[in-house]
Design a protein that fits this description.
The chain has about 80 residues and is mostly helical. It is about 70% helix and about 0% strand. It contains 4 helices and no strands.
Length: about 80
């Protein structure tokens, strides 16, 4: 057995000590924290500032990226809690 095998075995033994419930909670908590952070961002940071083109307004309801980022993160949270 090489020293690399011994190191890998010790790391694997440490990871086996972590309960799966804690891993699942952490796995779901990361997108929850991200969605809170996204919702706290100011509108000026998440909305395009340059002209959207001729005849188009940059202040449309779907121009704010917070909405779409929140939807994606909430979908991930739902999937992670169901699986």
């Amino acid at each position: 057995m090489t020293p690399l095998h011994a190191f890998g075995d010790s790391v694997r033994e440490l990871f086996l000590l972590i309960p799966l419930g804690a891993v699942r909670a952490l796995f779901v908590a990361v997108p929850v924290v991200l969605v809170i952070w996204v919702l706290c961002l100011p509108r000026e940071v998440t909305t395009p500032t340059e002209d959207a083109g001729p005849g188009k307004s940059a202040t449309r309801w779907d121009a704010n990226l917070k909405l779409w980022a929140s939807v994606a993160l909430l979908l991930q949270i739902v999937i992670y809690t169901l699986v």
